[in-house]
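*** Residues and shapes ***
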Amino acid sequence: MIDDNNKANHLEDENKLLKEKVDKLNTTLTKFIQGSKILKTTLSSQRCVFNKKKFKLSIEKKTKSI
């Protein structure tokens, strides 16, 4: 009887610890997902700096006309 109570108490304690770990992991995952959304939004709102052809053409037009 005592052994069964001891096992039950041990399982209850383990269950509590696992629930706490799951809660912490859920919080971490939520923060990660939110951060990913913010990063995606930030990156999508930036201009592309690799497309310099348009800029070069406008400079050439100005220098030729002078």
